[in-house]
Design brief:
about 120 residues
Length: about 120
């Protein structure tokens, strides 16, 4: 059974940094497509970033150059390093995983496995 457990986020001032973590069990993170999606208040889920089993990453234009997705195989953990955060980044962030899919940030909202989410609030 796949289980994804996120942590991190919290409250951050605009321009600051934060890191999200996602510990996976039941799957091996470097053998799947892993990603992050988010949902802001009153909006639908949107893809943020994804990384395939070769380590190739893709990012939404809104976070490119500010966010970095990475995998630690030894810890079976996915990360999202967020720098220069903006109030528009405020959302619940979810870790997602799937196999046999087109592994890009645009498809991440449709991945079959998703964690419970963690809140990031950015104040101006």
């Amino acid at each position: 059974q796949v289980q994804l457990v996120e942590s991190g986020g919290g409250s951050v001032e605009a321009g600051g940094s934060s890191r999200l973590s996602c510990v996976a069990s039941g799957v091996t993170v470097n053998r799947l497509c892993m990603g992050w999606i988010r949902q802001a208040p009153g909006k639908g889920r949107e893809g943020v970033a994804a990384v395939d089993n070769y380590g190739v990453a893709s990012y939404a234009d809104s976070v490119k150059g500010r966010f970095t997705i990475s995998v630690d195989s030894a810890k079976n953990t996915l990360y999202l390093e967020m720098n220069s955060v903006k109030p528009d980044d405020t959302a619940v962030y979810y870790c997602v995983a799937d196999g046999g899919v087109r592994c890009e940030w645009e498809t991440a909202p449709y991945f079959h496995n998703r964690g419970q989410g963690t809140q990031l609030t950015v104040s101006s």
